[in-house]
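Human: We require from you a standard protein entry with sequence in single-letter code and fold as tokens, and nothing else.

Assistant:
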Amino acid sequence: MSHYISITEAERAEMLAAIGVASTADLFGDVPEAKRFPRLSLPQPLSEPELVRELLALSGADAHAHSHSIFLGAGAYNHFVPAAVDQILRRGEFFTAYTPYQPEISQGTLQAIFEYQSLICSLTGMEIANASHYDGGTAIAEAAIMALTMARGRRKIVVARGVNPQYRAVLRTYLQALDVTVTGDETPDASIEDALALVDDQTALLIVQSPDFLGRLHDLRGLAERVQAKGALFAVHFDPIALGLFQTPAEVGADIATAEGQPLGIGLNFGGPYLGIFTTKQKHVHKIAGRIVGVTKDVDGQLAYVLTLRAREQDIRRERATSNICTNQALMALAATVYMSLMGKQGMRKVAELCYHRAHYAAAEIAQIPGYSVSDAPFFKEFVVRCPRPVAALNAALREQQIVGGYDLSQDEPQLGHAMLLAVTEMNSRAEIDRLVATLRAAA
């Protein structure tokens, strides 16, 4: 919390004299007099206990994640955030620090970032992780820019249809001023194999996602070799929670692996700030965007954390930069670091198991409701439900029962008809799932 220290009358007079006015009223000279000091209809002042009671009553009327059962995902998920995460984030040395421009006096911040990089590499199996990007969409866009920089003349990016449409939009925005073709995601129902067929000698990168936007799991083994045989790079966008159970990017030979790190101890936060995870192979380290923190020893032989391979062009000579990303979501990376440290390997696996089993229980129950059908594709924690009525109407009925329903797919995948993308996490109890099923049955 910031501390407010009021100024004295002498200090106020000195400040007014410095700017050449006689009083604070003179500062409002350009505001029409009739509008200058409007009368406000305010209640009588309250004592502190009365004020606290009033604020608690007002907050109790708000809708929030703890007052509703949430089954909405599509890129942001209602996972459990241990209390220790927020408590550590609020420490002044972390909460107020912006970015380590003077690394020699930012050892705590640098160590936190170093631990984040180490944990992300352990989670994904990849060799290098940078100090993070802004969100999952930004990380994908930076992967494309890195591939174009390395491709030497190749100007084509192939994106599988299953990649989150918001990320695809961010990618196109990043690349719109460049002479680059983005393809592969235009045709409804196009598969990863369809995207792979578009990879040719002009392709710099193929981007796939698993679990994909519709929640489907894909076996990506063998794809990297086929892409790399054509001289292109292979990028995988992943769910960090899913890695507790399923294939890691390293196991499938990814050149670049990206993710939205929000599930790792970061609340929904009304849509942000979030965390862009970016990893690659050691041989590509000189082309990576952003910062990497390394560890060495100082002149006294003591352990010291340093900014490594920080491209100066990213701060100053922008026209020569690989990327203009010159900072990172350090506080969000710290949240992910605390979360992964608290969970450990077994905890990460347990969260993934809870998501998997509860999602499959929900899918099995919904599939038995007349008028509803569930996709039979393998999935992790999200799945598509075809509905007998428009999703907007069903979600309205769910809200009346304090349930936040699934994502309406009508805008992104209209060929699916009335279709809802439901997400189930460890935060959804069996009782909540049963209440969801009962409400969907009644609303049909």
Notes: The chain is about 35% helix and 15% strand. The chain has a mean pLDDT of 91. The longest strand covers residues 203-209. The two ends are 49 Å apart (CA to CA).
